[in-house]
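pasting input
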Amino acid sequence: MNESENMTREVAAPVRDNAEVEAALNRRYEAGFVTDIESTTLPPGLNEDTVRQLSAIKGEPEWMTEWRLAAYRHWLTMPEPDWAKLDIAPIDYQAVSYYSAPKAGPKSLDEVDPKLLETYEKLGVPLHERARLAGVAVDAVFDSVSVGTTFRKELAEAGVIFCSMSEAIRDHGDLVRQYLGSVVPAGDNYFAALNSAVFSDGSFVFIPKGVRCPMELSTYFRINAMNTGQFERTLIVAEDDAYVSYLEGCTAPMRDENQLHAAVVELVALERAQIKYSTVQNWYPGDENGVGGIYNFVTKRGDCRGADSKISWTQVETGSAITWKYPSCVLRGDRSVGEFYSVALTHHRQQADTGTKMIHIGKGTKSKIVSKGISAGRSSNSYRGLVKIEKGAEGARNYTQCDSLLIGKKCGAHTFPYMEVKNPSAIVEHEATTSKISDDQLFYCLSRGIGEEDAVSMIVDGFCKQVFRELPMEFAVEAKKLLEVSLEGAVG
Amino acid sequence: MHMLKIDNLHARVEGKEILKGLSLTVKPGEVHAIMGPNGAGKSTLGNVLAGRDGYEVTQGTVDFAGRDLLALEPEERAAVGVFLAFQYPVEIPGVNNTYFLRAALNAQRKFRGEDELDSMRFLKLVREKLKVMQISDELLHRAVNEGFSGGEKKRNEIFQMAVLEPKLAILDETDSGLDIDALKQVAEGVNALRSPDRSFVIVTHYQRLLDYIQPDYVHVLAGGRIVESGDKDLALKLEEQGYAWLAETHPELRKADLAGAPA
């Protein structure tokens, strides 16, 4: 299939008038509080000095500073991408502050500002004792720095490294140097280059040979300071026969200005290794008129470098004013497997252009894509995906399923599936549906005694079931709740 | 005392008046069959009683066991005991059939101020009700009506009715599209649910359902009103003679009102 055969679909659904529902729809963003803590923030602006300064604040080695500078210089030569189906107001990169850290630089969890811990508590992040109970190891990134990683000792006993990227650069420099940028090169794309120049923190995970990580790992990102960009960098390496399941969650306060978030996530899976990466993204989406909200430009890529390795992306995206994100898999090792399960929900004026790329290089590689887009309000929700079968990918297989659900008649759903098949033995399947929550379905639920709000969330939950099944249990519950909150009153 | 008293009901759909002064009284335990030509307003009646959006009542009253039924939201009508078995049961992908039914039952119980059933008690109830209407374990655990055959969908409706235990069940052409075996199964389910305090309004196009469910009354709905009432014999007469003869006793009915022929 070539580009000219791309599909775009827009379907209008009937309107329902319901003032009550409309009111609930405008329910406020629950994670939208600001934490009042003193912080050290670099003045807005970006030039080579900012990059050097940032690197110096973090006490980075020379090679890291040079790496950043090279990325910055490359970034200067690149144009902003405009191919996505997104309507973005121009971004003034000089108005953004590229570093903000709580002032009392914490060394360990016990030294963490109690107010910060309170913030996480409000967010329901299982830090500290709660983490112990929940059995989830959490690395929390607040604005630009990582404030504490739980379960360090337990993980160390298993040989697992789970720490902030800053620490990793300091304490595990060789590993970082070996893998950083090996999946997403510094000059990969505009936002990846920007991130490479100014990333401030993030998580580093290393699972050595033969180790099955004894617990779910989790990172919580939060943007707090005003006019601050967040540029985190995550790197996960699973050596031969290693396994890890990793989850990230994101929130931000409500602000009238748009805030920039440009992250890079790199995954490396060696022979027979498996990485399961799950995201629950709930950045502030802006208000109902499209004022404020996070610009979320993220590059996520996994490299199935070893034979029989597997990388699985699961994402539940409900937040951000703009989402530009295509978690991808490079299936280099023979018989390696890539998966992408996605629920992307847009409401009000939110815009999402998201999907995946599956690049089949090795023989007998397999990929599976299940994308569920839900659009409500005046939002726009696009799936954009590339399935590429290289010449040597004998017997490669792909299955893609793209479903869109429309709520209301002012939203749009679009599907842009690209396929490039260079090996005739490959089997590539694509299925797509667009549906709407029908009056019939709603009335059926009502006539059985189920109220409208519950009916809508039940129908949406059913629509997303295939993806929720892929999330770790407790996060599946959270994801379901998040959709309910995001959609309240969407039938308007 | 009546269960349902519809008095001079007028209703519009998309600006067009479909019900034009319909009156009907149903007492507890009674089974009323409503027959009539196509376009007479049979399905409209069910939808109006269940409270579907877009069905606008312009005149008349509906009293349900002492309540003004028309003042209630659709889900409240379900909770006070009105059940509509759909002509075309709706598919809800990804929503487990049993989960859906439990959510429905508990929503109704909550509205009535009763305690909600936990999964153990609910499963016990389900097992009990499977005696009334047999449906397979597989169907119980599939998504609501998804991939069900026509007969399975209708049996699922009767099964829901058995679990929800309504006071008034309205069956909207439940027999349509069923072969004779499926029809018998559905009829047996309905008969098992008949009781002195439960009433049925059975909307049907064909007489044959009434071979298996014995109605107390048969009504002819034509031109948006009940124009003729009788017992089982009326259904047989309709089957033999069609509806055209009604024009003699009801000169106000236009030819178009009587155009739809029964089986």
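fyi The first helix of chain A runs from residue 19 to 25.
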